[in-house]
Amino acid sequence: MKAKFLIPLALFVVLVGFLAVGLNRDPREVPSPLVGKAAPAFRVPQLDAAGKTFSPEDMKGKVWLLNVWASWCVSCREEHPLLVEFSRSQETPLIGLDYKDKREDGLGVLVRAGNPYSITAFDGDGRVGIDYGVYGVPETYVIDKAGVIRYKQIGPITREALDKKILPLINELNKS
Amino acid sequence: MKRLFASLLLALACTAAWPKDAPPLAEDPAVEKRMIAISEEMRCLVCQNESLAASQADLAQDLRRELRGLIKEGKSDEEIKQFMVSRYGDFVLYRPRMQPTTWLLWAGPFVLLIAGIAVLIGYLRRRSRVVEQEAPLSEDDAKRAEALLKEGGQ
What we know:
The structure holds two protein chains of two kinds. By secondary structure, chain A is an alpha/beta fold. In chain A, 38% of the residues lie in helices and 18% in strands. The longest helix of chain A is centred in the N-terminal third of the chain and has 18 residues. Chain B contains six helices and no strands. The radius of gyration of chain B is 36 Å and the shape is elongated. Chains A and B meet through helix 4 of A and helix 3 and helix 4 of B.
């Protein structure tokens, strides 16, 4: 009989538990349906050499990162030093995708802040971005040797995300 | 003379400010109508409380352009929905689809309703049983009650 009085308390605790989890989540982080699927194909000109093109096909057999950025994107500046550091210490190719940008603005950023990208693809009208489900730059995709997207970082790469998720994943993918 | 000049100037200023014809909303009103009908059912991922039809975000404008293209290609509504879901996930749909992960969402309110009715019926039954079981007054109690009532009447 006494236990009956505990029922509302138990329900309350469950509710608080749900709220604690739910309210601490970032509503901007929408899980991408593309994780686990093949990276959408595209072929676009490169940022610094309009005559040359880039396609994910060129990267078959390699584990690589696709980083979507733009000169107008403020949080891209935040992650930029980390990307520069990554490109110096890692073998993994880091490909940039300059999203909805003007060529000269994009190139300006790379000149001023350093160029961490082995290749930068240029997506001036944002169509590639749409195929990749980009909705808030910067976004970074880890793509495996078979061309499958294994991870998507929404928002700037933080040191924590890099050390705890991205680097271990790259190591694991490189072994297989 | 000054006044005439001023009014002339004013008249000229007015002609300059005459509005131009409003630009047509779209080349093809039928395409536009379908595009709006579809995009009203979709969430803009940049401003998540706005529909894709209403949002002025850059991405929303690009996506509307993309939807127009798909409509002109003759894609069905279902194919266009699939185009969006395969890129942005079920989150873009304002009306969740019927699928294993959403069964609880769809059935939840009805399950709660049925559970509530069951609890209510159980409670009412138990209460009526308690009322029935209450023993009638014993003879002594009845006499005492009568006596008390009489006392009160005097």
